[in-house]
Amino acid sequence: MNTYTDLQANSTASPSLSQPDPNQFKFKLTTTTASVGREEINWTVQVLGSTGACTGCSKVILRFVFFTPTGDTIDAGGNASYSIFRSTTASPTLTRVFGTGTSENDTQTISLSNRNPSVASFCPDTNEICYDATGSVGYNVTLAFKFGWNFPAGPSKMLSVQVGNVALVAPILANANVHQMVLNSITNKVLHTANATSFNFNRTVTTPLPSPPGGNKNFNWTSFQVTLYYPTAYTSFTATNATGPALPAGTTGFCLAPDCKSLFNATFVSMTFSQLNGNLQLTMTAQTTNTLRSISAVIGNLPQTHWQPSESIGVKLNDTLSIQQPGTVGITQIHSSGKTVGPTQTQNTLGNGTFPITVATSPLGSWNVNATFTSLYDYGSNSTSVFIEHLKLAQSFTYSGDNSRITATGTIDHESSTLGPAPGASVAVFGISTLTSGNYSQSFAPASAGLYIHNITFVNGAFTLGRPLIIYLGIVNPSSTVMVGNVTISHEFLSGISHGVNATFSLDKPIDTPFQQGSRNYEVDVTFSNGLMNLKVTTLRTGAQTTATSSSGAPPLFDTRQQFGLFNMTVTSQPQAGGQRTINSHESQPFAYVFSNSLIAQGGRVLAAKIGVADSQGAFTITTDSAPISQARHLALIVLARDANGITLGNQDPTGATDNLVLCGPLTSGTCQPALDGPTEATSGQSLTMTLKVRNNSTKLVMNLNITLQVFSGTNLVSQTTQRTGPMQPGASYNFPFTFNAPSSLGSYSVSFFSPEYGAPIIATTLNVVIIPTTLQIAIPAIIGIAVAVGFAFFFRRRRPAVTETAEKTKQTGPKAGTRPRNP
């Protein structure tokens, strides 16, 4: 670089001309009187060559400042301009170069809009102007500034311009070729190390002169300057040189050029070397703080430490960058055994937010989730510990009971062998069947005021992915007051314990009109997704629909886990015309949410359920509430559990056992069909006995049934006879005789054996009531024939015994020749 001072300038003497520093002039004229004048300042410099000045130097730049100081103006009548000329060293003739220069007239200030300050173009200050002087190497170049004015008398006028800082620069811009970032885990600081490629400088250059006289001449550049730029956010900046001269003390400042802002508000250190030549191999170091300030594994925004295999989780990062430049986030899972999964990478990110990953499938146990952020300027690393686990139902599961209640006994274990039983785990037992007509419902007493729920019916009671939980909700307005209101459904893991997962829908707008006196029924379809509860509500009165989505909860609702729960349903209402608000609430029966169960996939329904708690060894004994279990036919006992950390049974089929509650015949082979002994015909009013022969086909459940023999004429019930079977033990056969009287009217009747507990006809037959049974109709003609034959024999025996006897003698001896038999 060559710099030129005020002493090297030619200027007209003027009291309006001042020198803010040795390298600049400031012209400022302020007047209220009429004034006309002209001033000029110029520098003449010889352009030195750049070849060999430094590694990569190939241009020569003429740089200077030309601006209106802040607060000053160029008023109407004032003018400021600059022009650049060049001449050979042998001739003083000036030739305009670099275009026509710039003139500023009545613009208030010198426009800076067309200037693009840039380190890359070597004009980092908005007040600077740069021209490429490479084509004028060897020439004398004159830079002339001219100021003119013609101010009339009147209000104060001003002409203010500052010029100077004239320099010739042979520059090169180079980026560091290596940038290494290393995290010190103790100090949590990142050490940045950057190396610049080795380059040479030589202030002595051979410059070709224009002809005439031509030839070459050696010149020395005044100085060699190195300016290092680094992000202002970096601290503890140092620079060392591995070869050549030691680095001198530098001048530090903030770079304001736009490309320094793209370098993230760079700080610079400018060092000037007095040596004629040298070599630089620079190493720069600095520090930043670990950008990843925090990390957590979350569902939604809720941190969780315990997860289940293959679940989709979020890794939430707080990434406080020193430099706001996108980079890459990498997330790796490392098991305590050393097994590694990942990394899962996300590119072009600032590192803030939640990044999805899939939890490792195996092995179970303790894992570290490590996250790193890497950009060109920043580095961060952090980790959090998670535990991956499943519960399982031990093989010791068993059950007993009858057709109204089931008692289930078992143990809930952690699937990882190191943890053993799950003490205090919540456990739910469900009896599920596909063949059922029973209702899984609750009815409630009327409320004293306001709208209230009178019935909650679960159509299925168990649901899975792609199949909603279907609820029928009956709501009553007991008064003549027209009401408006809404229903809030709150999810509960256990009775009475809500956790913030709530969804609300209106009972009137948009799906219905205000609530008149009477009852209305609503179908509510419930699904789980993304940690939320979704409702689709249909009013059965009009068919109109609405939807609602819940808030997220704490602990969260995992739609990725098989689970059980309940709903707290709250009706909030008030008169349409305004008035007192009333709130009525009821808790639903338990529901099941499972992934793998063939009965539920086929549309199975819950018949019975109960929630309980395991003891300190994970053992439980739970008896379901009373329910029509014998209607199940094919029954599956599902066991669901959740420990204190929210871990549930794995995604395998949660069925603990299956059973068949079917009445078969006494035979253990062939079709499972009850047998019936008894007449198919009878006379009017005849006393009959039919015997029902059945076998309890259940494996472990006792059947207690009330069986009724019903006689129908068409669809009309004629008579019925009921008896209680008593306990039918599993696998045992029983005969139940029913004695009744045949109907008094002739005709064909249907005789059906029905049990309300069994839920369907056990067996049916036909009974015909006749005047004479078919067996008698066949027997009477035979009896009449026998009676006639006996009568004839008696007649002969009494009227003509001699003849009979004679005949018998004749028959025995035979007639004589010529004798004629007598005609009786």
Q: What would you say about this model in short?
A:
This protein has 824 residues and is mostly beta strands.
Main beta sheet strand tally, sense and closure: 9 strands, mixed
Helix coverage percent:
under 10%
Strand portion, in percent? Answer: over 45%
Estimate the mean pLDDT confidence. Answer: 86
Shape: elongated
What's the N-to-C terminus distance? Answer: 176 Å
- So how many helices? 4
Q: Give the radius of gyration.
A: 53 Å
Sheet/helix structural class: mainly beta
β-strand number: 61
The parts where pLDDT drops under 50 for at least 5 residues are 89-108, 786-824
Characterization of this structure:
- The protein is elongated.
- Strands 33, 34, 35, 50, 55, 57, 58, 60 and 61 form a 9-stranded mixed sheet that branches. Strands 1, 3, 4, 6, 10 and 12 form a 6-stranded antiparallel sheet that branches.
- It contains 4 helices and 61 strands.
- The relative contact order is 0.08.
- The protein is mainly beta and 824 residues long.
